[in-house]
Structure formats: C-alpha cells, structure tokens
C-alpha cells in the first residue's frame, strides 16, 4: 500500500493526474472532506494498479524482441564491410574519369587554338590578297572589285587584325594594312568624285554604278543622301526645264492654259517612274527606305510657288479663272494619286519586310508622314486658294447668267435657270475632280449658300416685280372688254399679258426644275462618288462619306425651300392673274334668275344660261397656263383655282334667291362644273365642293322639315360641312320657304 | 427636316486658332476620351452625337475645323449653315485670345445672323500656365454678347455642360422662331388664303 501511495505522490509531484497531495490531506479537518479525498485516492490507486498490470504483461514480448536483435548483430557487421569496399571502388572510378575529361578539355582547347590560327592565317592571306587586289583593281579602274576587297577587309574582325599585328609578321601585316587603309580612303574619294562627276554629267548608268559601291564601303547614309540629292537635283532641273518651257512657251497654244498642271503631272510622273526604277536598287543596297522621298518634296516648292504667283493676279474675269481652277484641281488630283502611290508602296514594303511588325503605329506614322509632308501641305494651301476662287467664279457666273436672263417661247424655264444650274454643277464637278473631300464639301456648301440666299432672292424679287404688272394688264383688259374675252383680243392679249405671265410661269416652272436639278445634281454626285469611291475612300472613308452626305442633305433642304417659294409664287399668281378673271365670270351667275318656273327651267335646259360659258372661259384661261407650265406646277395651280372657284361660288350663291326649280337648276349647274373640273385636275375636288354640294341639296328640298331627314342622327354617311346657322341661311334663300318654319327647325 | 429619330437637328461648328483643343473637346464629348498627342486636324472632321434634353431627342452634328490658316477657306464654307459656333481659345496662350477679334470678323462675314456663338477658354487643367485671366475673357465675351465658358477637355471639366447648354439654347431659339414664323408669315395654304382673298377683292 505504501508503495502505491508513494507512486501516487510521485505522480502528484510530477504535476500530472492526482488532484490531491499530502499537504491538502493534512490540512483537511472535516470528516466529510476526508472521506471524499479518501474515495478519490482509492479510485486513483485502482487505476495505477491496472496500469502496472498492463506493463508487466508486456514484458514477455519485449524480451523476444531483444533476442531477435542480438541475433542480427553478425549480419550487420558483414554489410558494413561490403559497403566500405564499394565506396573505395567508386572513388577510384571518379578520379579516373576526371583524368580523362581533363585530357579531353586540353584537346579541345588545342583544337580551338588551331582553328584560330588557321582563321588568322586565312585573314592574313586575305588581307594580303586584298591589298594586292585593291591595288590592281584601282590601277585597272575596276572600282567594283576594289570595293569588294575593301568590303572584305572591313568585314574582317578588327581585333584579329590587331592581334596579328602583334605577332612576328607584324611588319608585313602592318604594311598591307596601311596599304589597305590608304586604298580605302582613296577609293572613297574616288567613288565620291566619280559619283559627283556622274551626277554632274547626268549619266544615270554611272550614277547607279557608284551608288552601288557606297554600301560596300560602309557609307550607307552618305550614299543614300547623295543618291537622293542626285534624284532631287535631276527632278529639280527637269522641273525647271519644264517650267521654263511652260513659261517660255507660246501662250496662244491651247494647252498653254494647262501648262502648270502638265508640268506638275510630268514632274510627278517622273518621280513616280524614278521611284519605281530606283526602288529595287535602294531596297537591295540600302536598309533605310524612302528617305530620299522627303527630299523630293522640296522640289515641288519651285513649281508650286510659281503656280501660286500666277494665280492671285487673275482675279478679273471669271472665265479667265476657269482654266486655272481646272488646273489646280487637276494638280491636286495628281498629288493625291501620287500620295496614294507612295502609301501603297510603303505598305507593300512593310508587308514584304516583316509581316509581324506591321503595327498600327507604323501605319499611323505613314499616314502622318503623308498627311503632313510638304507636298500635302502645299496642296492644302493650293486648295485653300482654289476654294475662294471657285466660289468667286461661281458667284460671278451666276450673277452674269441672272443679268443675261432671257426667256424663249416654248421653253418651260428661262435661260437663267439652266445657266445657273450648269454653272453650279460644273463647279461641283470640278471640285469633285480634285479628289479632295474637304474641297468638295466646301464647294457644296458654297453652292448651297449661293442657291439658298442669293439665287432664291433673285427669284423672289422677280416674282414680286412680275405680279403688279400682270395685275395692271388685267385691269386694262377688264376695262376694254368687260363681258368676255373674244378670241382675237385673247390673242392680242397674249402678247402683252401672256408674255409676262409666261415669264412668271416660267419662273415658277424653273423652281420645280430646280428641285429636279437638285435631285439630279445629287444623284450625279452620287454616281461620280461611287465611281471614285474605291480610290478616294481608301482607309477610314466612312467619315468622309458622312461629311459629303451631310453637305448634300443641306442641298436637299434648300430644294425644299425652293418648293416653298414656288408655292408662294403660285398663290400669288392665282390671286393676281386668275382671280380677277374668274371672279366676274362667277358673278354673272347673279344675273341669271334662279327664281324660275317650269317654262324657264325648260328654256334653261335648251339654252344653258351660265355654266357652259363658264366652263369654256375656264378652259381657255387654263390652256394658257397648261402650255407654259410644267405638269406638276400646272396641277398645283388648278388646285388653287378650284379652291378659288368654290369660295367665289359660295359667296355668289348666298346673294341669290331660288325657287324649287331654281334649286334644281343650281344643282345641275354645280354638277356640270364639278364634272368639268374633275377632268382638268388630278386632285380630288369633291372635297373642295362639299359645302356647295350640300347647299345644292338644301336648295332642292321639298319642304323645310325635309332637312331633318338628312340632319343629325339621319345624316348617315354624310358629314355636314355647314353649320346649323348656315343651313338656316341657305334655307332662307328659297323664296317659297317660310321663315317661321325655318326658325322652328331644331338643328 | 425629317423626324425619323430625333426632334431637333443642330449644326455646331468649332472654330479657333490651331492647337487650342477643338478636336479634343469634340472627342471628349462624343467619344469620352482624351487623345494625347492629337495631330493637327486636316480640313474638317465631322461627328454626331444624339442627346436627350427634357425628353426631346436632339441630334448634334459637330463640325471640327482645322485651325491652321491654309484650311481657312474650307472651314469658312461651313459657317453659314451652322446653328451654333463654338469659338475656342487656349487660356494658356495669350496669342489665341488676341486672335479672337479676327475670328469674330470671320463670323460676321460668313455666318448667318441668327447663329449662337459661345466663347470657350480651354485647358483650365493647366491653371499654373494661365495667361488669360477669366475676368478679361468674361468682359470680352460680354462686350460681344457671347456666352462664356471655361473647359478642360483633359479633365472633362464643363465639356458636357458646354454642348448641353448650347443644345438647350438652340432649342429655345428654335421654339421662339417657330412662334414668330407662325405669327408673321402664314404658310401658303387654303386656310389663310381665304382671308387674304377677301381683303383685297376689288368689287
């Protein structure tokens, strides 16, 4: 027991399981506590005993394991011996291998040195060969060969040469080196001189020959610069020659007017040809491309400055400007063509050069170069001068056409209209031919403003001036022959009134003609655009197209303004030319009594008192207009006239009085009139005569109350255009209807 | 004017010296970007943006012109049909401000007299380099009875406001014009002709 108690204490000291130690036990005084602790300790003791039993049980198996281990001892000793033997062998093999590899490395170094020696010997031999070769070649003036030798020398490794100089043969190598360097310098000088000579002598073959030598001598830049210079000077001189020819040439010649454009064309064509022929050379021998082209542009200045000088001086007669303008647009078109050519070339080169590196940046750079190069700038300036001149030309020409306006009989439009549209069309076509979108848009804008403000004003004033005269004529005529216009007087009148009327009509007519022209111009431009679109709109052309579309739509808007003007003009014409004639014809209705009995009604049946004459008169009046006006305008005019007639009729009817048969008579007359008017217009006129027809219906009633069969809920499909008050008013026109009955009506 | 997809169509033309930021203002407004290293404009560029103002669709046709002298004759041709002109200068460039009277002369000469002109001082993001004081520009604008606004295309300051204010002003004028027109010039048509026939009848 003491044993287990000790162990329990030990475990307590080690601080593990038991929650009770000796001090706590001795401190306990209460019996309850002591009993509880005792129970606890008993439980712990049982636990410890169980564990001890378990440990004792394990002793057997541990013993067997120890025995097995003891038996393994001798085996392990054997393994140890084997292992140390193996390690010795590995160490030996290793040292052996290291020895072998060292020897191989030494061999390799020896081989490399040997190669170097051979290379150097070769170089030295080459050098000597070059030295000899250069001298012979120079002596024989075989510059290509000499250049090849120098090229070989230059491509030798400089350090190798340095090394060989330190070797035993240094003096010999030195000597050849010096010789070579001398030869190189000499060759450079000679080639440069020869190239200059060739350039001076304009010997293309020689130029090309020496041009090819430059890259061999490592002078790429210099060669390119010289070649570019050569090409420039050649182009310059050629251009100057042409210019001299141009300015010195006989100005009486027909082509003299176009010399500048011709000159530029020649120049550009020349350049294009040069670029084409020399490009392979440049590409083969030089890495950098197209630098020389920038040089070209300087040369344009010569030509263009002279162009510019020639232009502002000619602001006198529009007709004189004509050729200059054509020339400028031609020049611009040529320049555009040239730039397109360059762009295509450069793009092609990019593709050939390195398909992977064609980045957006490259293309942007090219665009930038082309857009901002001197040529573009010059052309932009030229166009800048061109536009105001073209505008001036257009304006002046139109003014002239207006001033020379004549009207030919049988023509629907006056000369002015035709001329103006011819001019405007011409100017826009010319602007289009410049291949410059901005230029085209600007001219469309100018044309638009010219037509919309100036030209419209001219027409407007003409319309305004015209009508009072017509009215005057009408009054005169009204005085001289009041009742009707006899055939003869009509013919006489034609010379006076019709002359003016027709002129007015014509003016109205050409308004429509304008609309047509406008659409025509538009479609014309569209066709032209379509044909040149593939060329002009290469690369992001949608913006350009939108620009043109927008400018054109302004033009269309203008055409609708002209339509308004036309409408105004026609209304005016209707009031001043038609109304004074039609009005008395309709008023004559008053003199025909409609308070009639059977006998008179039959008499009217036999001899029409009014409507037939009215129709004949109207027919004659409208015949004049029909010949002078275009169908569309004539139609509008007749429409205006029918409105006028219906209004006048209504007013007249309200001044009459009717019997039952008189109402029937009026109904007949109205039907004839409507039937006639329906034949002369394509418009539906029933609507315009709705009120009158309803009035006739009322005048035809048997009794006052019969109206109720047609009114209100009984109206059926009929929509009354007359107010109840008006219905009463019409009913009152019937002399046989009593006013009390009318008043009593509930409408 | 067709009424397909908008209630109003206005043409706005930007003018002013080269390099004051016209293209950048237009790009900022129409595309929401500020292109650094923007090259000089060639001739005229054209952009469209439709905005909605108080429920009405307004299509803005914006013409961005080249400031360089050699394009002047091209750009001038657009003045007349413009509903509004945005005259732009660079607040960091005294020269661009001094040229304004010259531009005003151009406007006087080429634009229609109903055109709405607004003066815009651009590049206020470069405040430390400012050469033209705000007060001075405001005075100038007032003397010429123009609206005035300072913007930065780079920081997108006032750009939206510029175009929207302009659109509002244009709508207001368009409505005003419509009213005026209805009062003074009757459209030639049936309704009106009656009265005017009766008033000039001779018998």
Annotation, overall tally of beta strands of chain B: 6
Proportion of helical residues of chain B? 25-40%
- The CATH top-level class label of chain B: Alpha Beta
Overall domain count of chain B: 1
> How much beta of chain B, percentage-wise?
15-25%
Task: Indicate the multimeric state.
Answer: heterodimer
Second rung of CATH, namely the architecture of chain B: 3-Layer(aba) Sandwich
For the largest interface, the chains and their residue counts are:
A-B, 46 and 31 residues
Q: Which architecture of the largest domain in chain A does the CATH hierarchy give at level 2? A: Orthogonal Bundle
Overall tally of structural domains of chain A: 3
Q: What this model shows, in words?
A:
- The complex is a heterodimer of chains A (747) and B (203).
- By secondary structure, chain A is mainly α.
- Chain A folds into 3 domains: 182 residues; 190 residues, Tetracycline Repressor, domain 2; 153 residues, Methane Monooxygenase Hydroxylase, Chain G, domain 1 (Up-down Bundle).
- Helices cover 81% and strands 0% of the residues of chain A.
- Chain A is built from 24 helices and no strands.
- The N and C termini of chain A lie far apart (138 Å).
- In chain B, 38% of the residues lie in helices and 23% in strands.
- Chain B has 203 residues and is of the alpha/beta class.
- Chains A and B meet through helix 12, helix 13, helix 15, helix 17 and helix 20 of A and strand 2, helix 2 and helix 7 of B.
- Chain B: One of its GO terms (cellular component) is autophagosome membrane.
- Chain B: It is found in: Autolysosome membrane; Cytoplasmic vesicle, Autophagosome membrane; Golgi apparatus, cis-Golgi network membrane; Golgi apparatus, trans-Golgi network membrane.
- Chain B: It holds the Pfam family Ras.
């Amino acid at each position: 027991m003491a044993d287990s108690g000790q162990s329990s204490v030990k475990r307590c000291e080690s601080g593990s399981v038991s929650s009770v130690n000796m001090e706590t036990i001795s401190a306990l005084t209460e019996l309850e506590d002591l009993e509880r602790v005792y129970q606890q300790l008993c439980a712990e003791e049982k636990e410890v005993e169980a564990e001890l039993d378990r440990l004792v049980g394990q002793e057997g198996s541990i013993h067997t394991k120890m025995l097995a281990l003891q038996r393994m001892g001798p085996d392990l000793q054997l393994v140890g011996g084997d292992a140390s033997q193996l390690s010795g062998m590995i160490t030996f093999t290793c040292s052996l291998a290291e020895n072998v590899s060292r020897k191989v490395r030494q061999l390799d170094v020896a081989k490399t040195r040997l190669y170097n020696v051979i290379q150097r010997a070769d170089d030295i031999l080459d050098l000597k060969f070059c030295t000899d070769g250069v001298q012979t070649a120079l002596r024989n003036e075989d510059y290509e060969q000499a250049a090849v030798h120098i090229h070989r020398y230059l491509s030798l490794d400089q350090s190798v040469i340095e090394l060989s100089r330190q070797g035993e043969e240094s003096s010999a190598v030195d000597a050849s080196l010096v010789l070579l360097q001398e030869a190189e310098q000499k060759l450079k000088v000679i080639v440069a001189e020869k190239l200059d000579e060739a350039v001076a002598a304009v010997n293309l073959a020689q130029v090309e020959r020496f041009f090819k030598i430059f890259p061999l001598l490592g002078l790429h830049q210099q060669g390119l610069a010289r070649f570019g210079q050569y090409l420039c000077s050649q182009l310059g001189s050629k251009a100057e020659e042409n210019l001299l020819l141009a300015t010195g040439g006989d100005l009486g010649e027909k082509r003299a007017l176009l010399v500048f454009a011709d000159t530029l064309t020649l120049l550009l064509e020349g350049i294009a040809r040069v670029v084409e022929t020399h490009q392979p050379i440049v590409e083969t021998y030089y890495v950098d491309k197209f630098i020389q082209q920038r040089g070209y542009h300087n040369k344009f200045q010569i030509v263009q400055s002279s162009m510019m000088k020639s232009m502002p001086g000619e602001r006198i007669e529009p007709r004189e400007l004509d050729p200059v303008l054509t020339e400028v647009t031609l020049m611009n078109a040529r320049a555009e063509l040239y730039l397109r050519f360059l762009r295509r070339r450069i793009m092609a080169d990019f593709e050939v050069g390195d398909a992977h590196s064609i980045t957006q940046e490259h293309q942007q750079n090219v665009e930038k170069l082309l857009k901002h190069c001197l040529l573009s700038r010059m052309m932009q300036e030229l166009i800048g001068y061109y536009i105001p001149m073209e505008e001036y030309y257009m304006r002046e020409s139109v003014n002239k056409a207006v001033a020379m306006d004549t009207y030919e009989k049988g023509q629907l439009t006056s000369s002015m209209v035709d001329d103006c549209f011819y001019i405007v069309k011409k100017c826009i076509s010319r602007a289009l031919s410049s291949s410059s979108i901005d230029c085209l848009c600007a001219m469309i804008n100018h044309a638009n403003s010219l037509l919309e403000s100036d030209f419209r004003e001219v027409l407007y004033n003409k319309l305004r001036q015209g009508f009072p005269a017509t009215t005057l004529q009408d009054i005169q005529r009204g005085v001289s022959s009041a009742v009707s216009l006899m055939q003869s007087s009509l013919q006489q009148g034609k010379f006076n009134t019709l002359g003016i009327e027709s002129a007015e009509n014509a003016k109205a007519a050409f308004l429509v003609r304008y609309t047509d022209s406008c659409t025509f111009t538009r479609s014309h431009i569209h066709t032209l655009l379509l044909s040149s679109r593939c060329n002009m709109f290469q690369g992001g052309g949608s913006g350009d197209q939108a620009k043109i579309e927008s400018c054109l739509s302004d033009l269309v808007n203008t055409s609708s303004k002209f339509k308004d003007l036309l409408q105004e003009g026609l209304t005016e014409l209707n009031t001043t030319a038609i109304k004074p004639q039609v009005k008395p014809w309709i008023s004559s209705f008053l003199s025909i009594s409609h308070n009639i009995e059977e006998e008179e009604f039959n008499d009217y049946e036999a001899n029409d008192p009014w409507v037939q004459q009215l129709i004949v008169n109207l027919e004659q009046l409208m015949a004049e207009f029909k010949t002078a006006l275009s169908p569309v305008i004539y139609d509008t005019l007749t429409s205006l006239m029918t409105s006028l007639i219906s209004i006048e009729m209504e007013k007249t009817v309200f001044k009459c009085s009717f019997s039952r048969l008189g109402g029937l008579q009026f109904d007949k007359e109205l039907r004839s009139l409507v039937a006639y008017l329906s034949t002369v217009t394509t418009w539906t006129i029933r609507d315009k005569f709705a009120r009158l027809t309803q009035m006739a219906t009322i005048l035809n009633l048997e009794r006052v109350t019969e109206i109720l069969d047609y009114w209100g809920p009984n109206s059926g499909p009929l929509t009354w255009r007359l107010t109840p008050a008006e219905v009463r008013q019409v009913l009152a026109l019937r002399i046989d209807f009593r006013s009390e009955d009318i008043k009593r009506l509930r409408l | 004017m067709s009424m397909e997809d908008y209630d109003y169509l206005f043409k706005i033309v930007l003018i002013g010296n080269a390099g004051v930021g016209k293209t950048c203002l237009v790009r900022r407004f129409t595309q929401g970007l500020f292109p650094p290293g923007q090259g000089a404009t060639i001739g005229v560029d054209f952009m469209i943006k439709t905005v909605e103002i108080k429920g009405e669709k307004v299509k803005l046709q914006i013409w961005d012109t080249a400031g360089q002298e050699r394009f002047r004759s091209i750009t001038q041709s657009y003045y007349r049909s413009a509903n509004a002109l945005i005259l732009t200068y660079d607040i960091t460039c005294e020269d661009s401000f001094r040229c304004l009277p010259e531009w005003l002369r151009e406007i006087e000469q080429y634009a229609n007299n109903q055109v709405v002109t607004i003066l815009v001082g651009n590049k206020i993001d470069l405040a430390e380099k400012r050469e033209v004081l705000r007060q001075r520009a405001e005075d100038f604008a007032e003397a010429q009875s123009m609206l005035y606004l300072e913007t930065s295309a780079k920081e997108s300051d006032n750009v939206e406001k510029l175009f929207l204010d302009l659109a509002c002003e244009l709508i207001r004028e368009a409505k005003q014009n419509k009213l005026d027109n209805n009062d003074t010039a009757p459209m030639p048509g049936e309704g009106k002709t009656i009265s005017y026939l009766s008033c000039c009848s001779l018998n």
